[in-house]
Amino acid sequence: MGTITSLLHDMKAGQEGAQNQLFEYVYKDLKRVAKRFSRNNPNAPFQTTELLGEAYQRLAGKETLNAENRRHFFFLLSRAMQDVLVDQARRDLAEKRGGGIANRAPMVEVTWENSKDPIAVLDLQEALAELGEKQPEIARVVLLRIYAGMTLHEIAADTGDAYSKTRRAWDYAKAWLRERLTPPKPEAPPDQ
Amino acid sequence: MGNTDETIRGDSWDERDVFLRALDLPPDERDAYLRKACPDEASHKRIHSLLIHHAEAGDDLLQVTVTTSDKTASPAEQIDEFTILHRLGEGGMGVVYLAKDTLLDRKVALKVVAGHLTSSEQAIARFRDEARATAALRHPAIVPVYRFGQVGSDSYLVTEFVDGPTLSILLSEQHDLIKSKKADRQVWYRRAAEILAIIADALECAHRANIVHRDVKPSNILIDREHGPRLTDFGIAKHITDDDCTQTSVVGTYYYMSPEQASITSNRVDRRSDIFSLGVVLYEMLSLQRPFDGSTPMQIMRAIVEHEPPRLRSIDKAIPEDLATICQKAIEKRPEDRYPTAAHISADLRCFLAGDPIVARPHSVPRRIWRRVQRDRRISRTVIGIIVIVLTLSLWRQFSLRQSADKSIIRITCDDQDTQLDVRALNNETLEFEPLHTLATANTEISLPVGLYRLIAHQASGNFIETSLFIPRPHTDITLSLNSPAHPSTRAAAVDDKSMVRFEGGPFLCGEGTDRKQISVIIDPFFIDVCEVSNRDYKVFVDQTGHPQPAFWKFATEIPGFLDRPVVGVSWEDANAYCRFVGKRLPTAAEWEFAMRFPDRRLLPWGDIMPAERSDISSSDISKTSLAQLKVSLEVYKSRSMPVRSAPSLCTPNGLFHGASNVSEWTETVDIGVSTVVIIMGASYVLDPDYINCATRRTYPYARENDGDQLQTKWSMQLGFRCACSETIN
What global pTM score does this model have? Predict the structure, then answer.
């Protein structure tokens, strides 16, 4: 726990090698996240590393240097992952319009666990932005959960909240997002 | 109830709170609760809907997956005149397809580089330039580029279709074989040397055209079923690394990066970077593990820049020492410490295959320790402490033992009682022999420490006999006879009958170029044989003294013109024994070089212009002969060696034969460093004189094979000698 924070301090104090150490430390996390994204995918290794590479580069940017502590750092990390996926989704879209012969750029898809219909990453992005405006602390949990691949326990420990509180935030976020992202269908009356 | 009222009251209706409370209730009680808690029908509906979605969402909300777009080219798709047949594989850059060229009706490999990897106009332009340059390369071990084109935002490259696995596949097969203990390691090591010698040739060809590959790795080496190993994917990596946003996309390449590629501070990447990568591949082939490893690119790159990989021979003792040395020289951190060109590493690999000495020299132990210390400051204090203690101890020991121990007893017999004996020891700094003892009689016993000596017997007549004496280790008792030679060749007579040439000597700078440290010496006047000792000459010696004959003489009858060919397959000791027999000695490395490069420091006996005859013995011809053939050294000797006095157009201006064309030669010079080595000079018939020239000092491990107490250098079928002698003794 203390490692990341102290590395961040070292880094800010200009200590040589601290940044490298920090990224090495965090890389494992990034890898885990990327792996999650490419599961059930025969081409996973390549795409995982490619995604990872991009997130990694973004993290290596200036913004990281301003991270206050571990918590902030992970938030930035999840944002980086999100950015990568969103950018990728934009590229996918552009490709669809431009039409190359053999575009093998990774396609990013988000699906409900028990559904096969993909959700557009850009829609998810929009929904998350909306949630973030209304209930920032809920959106934060979602971000850490989806894009930093953290478990609820980790998120709870990280934010200093009780696990039950995080759990409930997640329950709500889940329902809210799903409700928001599911195309409206003819509704059954509530009392049926 | 009160709580719920509070929630309902006010303008901020807390949807989340109501939802969570409802969620806590058993499903059948929820509706009743919601009716009370919700301010209106809309919010009631909304919470209800959230609850349903929550139930449907399962444990994990969203699964983010990354998939490959379905838009990859499919069979039968046409790209310009190429019909896609099927997918061959993919790498960091894109997908490779087997395609059919419908115009020329042949199979080709078509590689599509996805648009997002070469996003900018500049990147595409560079990719195209490189394709153009590569297309100009003509080498049997370079997969030729046929075409470069563009469709939409993607670029594609068409190359010859190579039917065979990549080296990385071969490597993993070898892994499995080793595991199941089915592999013959020595066969595999030779195979590694063969493959990489050829790939080094391909790199040399590219480097001469100013193309740096930058991505030498097992997956870019294809093992063509018909044509052997071939290099592909030229220069593509260059564009990847220039394109900063995709730099991290090809993780596989990290392992084979050179320090100058991996470090952020320097970006001077030249041909020696490819040599490093080639060395990494060699390392992996020999040890079946990567020299620089890590779980993150950062770790790998740091290892490349900072760490010394484990020594190959400490991983597996069976790895041939020469190959380990070659590999070590290729993966030196500093480019200037590596082989200067790919041709040099190719030459050394071929030397290894031919059983000939290599040019690279192993690291000395102190150097290894020093490098360790430099890289790891933590241990430096300890190490320096240990060094101080060891030095103190060894000095004290040397001092206390100086009187008598560690010396060898040399018994000298001489048929002439009036002969005076002059003992001179080699000064390793100046490389000159300095007087040590003068004894009234040569019929005596002396004790000498390890080192190289020259013994000079001054006869009453004024003549002198000189011979070299090497004491390889303490307590090696040697008996030596300094009788007048049975076949004395007086120096003047030798010059008259043109069997020797006299050189005046003088100050001389040994060596050339950046290859090795140049040494400045002063050479006394000397004579050197115009040609190598032939089998005919050596046979006289064997017949008269009963000295063992070279092993290959068993096949003498199979070798046409056997007697006129140079004697080979003799150890350094054999050569010295022969010299004593004829009253001469071996030339020093400096003398040999001086003579061959006379008068204008030429690198080759014939100067710069290759004589016409050279073409039929040229090494380009050698590289065409299959490597399998090189292994059969007797066969090669038979087909490649020449009579000792042949090819006058290849002589030096002073008429010395075969300084770079027949066999390599022993010299008298022994370097007693950490490991004792004998210097050998000259290119042999299996080596390219462009790289092993008359200034090249190669080293041959002394007593490579240590058979019990018998210390003897190993012989080679490409290694002969010629004799020399001093004019006067000062």
Answer: 0.52
